[in-house]
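Why do we bother with holo predictions? Because pocket geometry can differ from the apo form. Keep that in mind while you read this record for NAI.
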Amino acid sequence: MPGSVELERHDGVALLRLTNPPVNGLSFAMRAALGDRIMEVLADDGVAAIVVAGAGRMFCGGADIREFDAPPPPGAASLPAVLAEMEASRKPVVAAIHGVAAGGGLEVALACHVRLAVPGTRLGLPEVTLGIVPGAGGTQRLPRLIGVEPALDVIVGGRLLAAERALALGIVDQVVDGDLLDGAIARARQLAADGGPLRRASLLEERVAEARARPGIFAAFRKQMARRARGFDAPYACVESVENAVSLPFAEGMAAERRIFERLRASDQSRAQRHAFFAEREATKIPDVPRATPALPVERAAIVGCGTMGGGIAMTFANAGIPVTVVDVSEEALDKGLAVVAQNYAATVAKGRLSQAAMDERLARIARSVRYEDVRDADIVVEAVFERMELKQEVFRRLDAACKPDAVLATNTSTLDVDEIAATTSRPESVIGTHFFSPANVMRLMENVRGRRSSPRTIATVMQLAKRLGKVGVLVGVCDGFVGNRLLAPYLREAEFLLEEGAPPQQVDRVLFEFGLPMGPFQMSDLAGNDVSWFIRQRQAATRPAHLRYSPVADRICERGRFGQKTGAGWYRYEPGSRTPVPDPLVEELIAGAAAEAGIARRAVGDDEIVPRCLYPLVNEGAKVLDEGIALRASDIDIVWMHGYGFPRYRGGPMFWADLVGLRTIYDALSRLHDEHGERLEPAPLLKRLAEQGKEFGDVGS
Ligand code: 3HC
Ligand code: NAI
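The structure, written out:
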């Protein structure tokens, strides 16, 4: 098992360096080594003070998450016990922090007597994002050090903070501009020479005593986080553990923290959230496009089409510091599109989440033009015009003529064939899909669609770009709907059939919301606009197999101009200015009418039927996508659905969730639905194979 702690002596100061690349993860071996080194230097009369630092890129990224499912080796050192020894040391211990101090890494630092960090360091306790609580004293030392409310923000928020912010909160004692190690060694030596009392976070009682006098703070915090934390166990467990810091003595609070940590570590939610963490990193690995593949550095970008998506994509580039030129057909179109962009920024400023100066800077990065020649300096152009093949082909012909030879030409199409678009250019190898999700400046998914001819350089460019834009990039292949919308189709279809069979839209929506989706299918359609899929259905009408069941309800809703929230009505009614869906008897009538025409006997649909009926077919489609090689791995499908459609992270995405449910269970249920409803619900061959072999989607390709 990797991980060591290197010892260097600097004239009476022992420098301990955590060494376990790439993030100095606290593996079992590393914890044991830290414990041994601490004992060694405490016993060494030649050592007056200790500095703890990290080798390589960072201080420490926390416990080694890969070991979470492994049983600890016999006699394994407990990190809290090692840290207790270290904190109790009469020799001063100084943490010298650079790069990142996250999770257990920050907990190591919190058990030191002084913390120094260099500018650019990021610090925090992201355990909550992995479905656990900090397990080495974070929930007990941090509130004592910085106060209960700030500690709740750090622990429940889970985000890494800049060094300057950590300084302001009191997490670090100093941000050092000069040489970190020299500074830390000098500080440690000085502390030893002074011989004064050392500051031990576990002994600081003032902040927790003060909080004890305000018993309402935890209830208030739980209330405030309720919306964001819906369905997640870990945020509530974090609050519980911080509450213990206030109500229990330190040692008891530590014991309780350990119990809570162990409970969560073994939970399905934590397994799912850890799966999500690794899935995001896995998605960056493309077997035939190795890391070293040269990518085009993107210094300038251009967007064609300044509508809903183009505007949001332009903001995404501007937010990442990349200058971008937006092209549309007319000054009016640009005025309209860019006014929306300005409004969006202004709303963020009004909420206090962006400064006016930052807004001005970002807006200044967005140039406008009605001339294609103005994209010639762009390293990448993202096309976001109307969803029509002839139009897109025309735009790409013009881009081919206007763009510099090595530019990447990307399309934001959500349904069209990237290869057909590429074929109209003289450089299909430079063409690729970059499918952003709406609102593009908010949603983190970038579904990158490789065409048959997309070159490794083009792929590497957009995958690296995704990271720079703060997005999660997933590479998929060309097929109808790519990964995200292809899985959406059977989900929506079965939801609509359930209406005809007797479930009202609000029942289906409620059950899927309770499952953890941000909203059910009908509320989602009303938000996205029912007209978009209506146009697609009209286009597909001629080729739709006549023998398959088809629900006309969505078409009838659109025929009445009910496009959703934007028209005040869709699957629901909306009062003017309100986004609250109100069930509408007219929709119920349309549904009942369609059911009668199709000869469907309506019945009370049980809540328990809804998740299997809507999500098993989605998983089944995922199995086909995987089998066809459209997705490289099941976890890529999970990423698409977590970041593009809000599939709850605590369920790990649809494929991981399916593995948890058990593929045999899903296969059997689908087989029954297949018998009842016919071919559209036939279990996919891959699902059948895995179910019969007792395997999981996670086993595919591994
Ligand atoms: N354990 C195991 N592997 C880890 C890891 C960890 N804590 N953190 C990162 N890695 C791995 C990644 O999987 C990746 O592996 P790969 O190259 O094989 O894909 C590699 O290290 C590099 O990671 P990133 O690409 O994420 O590197 P960055 O430089 O972009 O980011 C980071 C560094 C900010 C440390 C980021 O990796 C991160 O957020 N890591 C997780 C931090 C975390 O959640 N720590 C808490 C752990 S739980 C804990 O500490 C419990 C304690 O309270 C007892
Ligand atoms: P939109 O209708 O809001 O905007 C399209 C813009 O393109 C308009 O401003 C129009 O003036 C401009 N345009 C049309 N022809 C042009 C040309 N020849 N040159 C330059 N500009 C031109 O459309 P929206 O919703 O932004 O969609 C754009 C693309 O993004 C489509 O391919 C769509 O399928 C895709 N998409 C849409 C999503 C959504 O939720 N709206 C989500 C993901 C992808």
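The mean pLDDT is 97.
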